Each structure stands twice: as C-alpha cells, then as structure tokens.
Amino acid sequence: MTDTALKGEPQQPVEPAVLEDVPGWFWDHDRHSFEWFLGRQAKQGVTGDLMEMGAYLGRSAIVIGEHLQPGESFTVCDLFDSDAPDEENSDEMDLSYRKTLTRSAFEANYLSFHDELPDIIQAPTSVLAGGRVPAGAYRFIHIDASHLYEHVVGDLQVARVALQDQGVVVLDDYRSQHTPGVAAATWEAVFNHGLKPIMLTECKFYGTWGDPEPFQRDLLDRVDLAVGCELATETLNRRQVVRMAGSSEGIHPFRPSRHERRAVEAPEPELSSRTARDEAALELAARRTRAAEARRPVNVAKRAAKDLLPPVVTSAIRRARRG
Predict the structure, then answer these.
(1) Predicted local confidence at residue 304, as pLDDT
(2) What average pLDDT score do residues 19-41 get?
(3) Distance separating alpha carbons of residues 154 and 149, to the nearest angstrom
(4) Are 116 and 122 within 8 A, CB to CB?
(5) Helix, strand, or coil (residue 171)
(6) What is the pLDDT of residue 309?
(7) Alpha helices in 118-224 (DSSP H)
(8) Residues whose CB is less than 8 angstroms from the CB of residue 155 and which lie 6 or more positions away in sequence, other chains included
C-alpha cells in the first residue's frame, strides 16, 4: 500500500464517513476482488480465519473484516508506530509512512465501520513464523507489510503453512518499480515453491497453493463479477492466469461508516441543525467526488510527477501552462 509518490495526499478526517476517507492505496478493482473471493468462500460454506500482514491505516482491513463469519478470527499484524527490527526496514518506514502510521489511527478507522477490533499483533510479521500461526487454519491472507525481499519470502512461508488447501493469498505491489523485492519473492514462490496464480490486477497478485481453476472458471463465467471488470487470460508456465482491468463504474461503493449513519438516523432536527446536516451531506458528496477523481490513473500520475520532479522543473511546467 505504500507509495512515496502519494505522500502529499490530504490528512485523514477524524471520523471517516466512507471508506475513501481512510488514507491508503486500495483501489476499487482490488476492493471488489477481495469481496469476490471472500464472498465466494462464504457462499460455498468455506470457513477459516482471516489475516492481514501490514495494514497501514486500515482501508483493506475494514473490507476484510466485513466478511468475518461466526466462529472465525481476524488477525492483523503490523509494526504501526513500533521500531522496525532492522535498519533497512526502518529506512523503508521513514521513506514511506513513519509520520502517519499509528495504531490508534488504525483502531479509530476500523471501529468507525465495525463494532470490535480484530486481533492485533503489533510486531514485525516475522513473529508469525516458527509455529505461532496454526497450520491450515486460514482461508484468506493479505500480505502488504515490508517490501524487502527477505521479509516477503518469510511472509509467504507463513502463509503457505497457515492457509487451507484452497486458501487464497494476496500480495500487494507485486509489480511496482519501487518494490522489486516483492516481485522477486512472488515469482520465486510461483516457479519454485508451488504457488499458483489465480488472477492479477494492476496492484495485487491473487494466488493459491491449491487448485486455481475453480476460481478462474467462476471469474471467467462472471459469477458475481461487477459490470465493467474486463478479464483476459494468459498462459504462464503451462498454467492459465486471469488478468482484471477495466472500469470501476459498475463496482458498488462500500457501505458507509457509523458516522454517516448517525446523521441519517438522527431525529428530525430544528431548522438550523437541518441546514447543518444538509451542508454536511453536500461536503460528503464533494469528498466522494474528489476521492473518485483522485483515483483516476491520470490524476495519480500527475500527483506522482508533482512529488518526484525537481522544484525547478515543476515551476517551469506551471509557467508554461499559464502561457
């Protein structure tokens, strides 16, 4: 989820009204994909625990937690505002999110959408190794912690032991320029350690150590898939891989938080309060519009250019635009 090109994004509101108010890099196609895989498991009667390694401020964890079934547990492991276990990992945190990532912010965001927190382990994901995680107990694991090759290899080893036969593992940033360690660890697991790709999106890799074909058949048959999601197939090492792209217009928004519902469910107010509520509704609509606009790839690229170009170049571009 980390991307230094997006460090200039506005700070989060105190009480997120919608999922897009929670800072992070979790786009509509991946949110829909998470819900598709988790919903498919529920419909088929599959039970098992859920896990996220690396949570940032909770946007993807909020979605995963929505699919927690009775008797299941959801574990989130993240350093949050703790010290990193080694200098290289500490440098990575300083570069990307040291100033914004706190456990209290994660908990506040999560509790805006859910009544109870997940089981939180505030520590490096390496503490999950060595038998701490029960084998075969999990049905879905999202890996989005350190981008360093050695760390991702360890996270994948934990996931391989922890997942059920048909469990799903999702890796973030498997193809980004600034995360070659994730790419190396991911494809090493595919070619040397039995991980089988199910589907690729722009940002995430979806795979299993079980049989990917049942998932792929349902995807290609568009079972419960949103309109606008475009699928294509590739053959990789004699195995089929599905790719997802397309428009997000057919993807339904995630439900609002308790803070939006509280305003909607309040008793009919006096005129002045009603005016304030209307203004708040307009502000919420405007915030949603800005969030949707910011998610357009062209605008993400503009923000990246602004953050990455030297100031003298940025100033020259602005002068040229003013003509």
Answers:
(1) 39
(2) 96
(3) 9
(4) no
(5) strand
(6) 44
(7) 149-162, 180-192, 213-220
(8) 53, 125, 128, 143, 145, 146
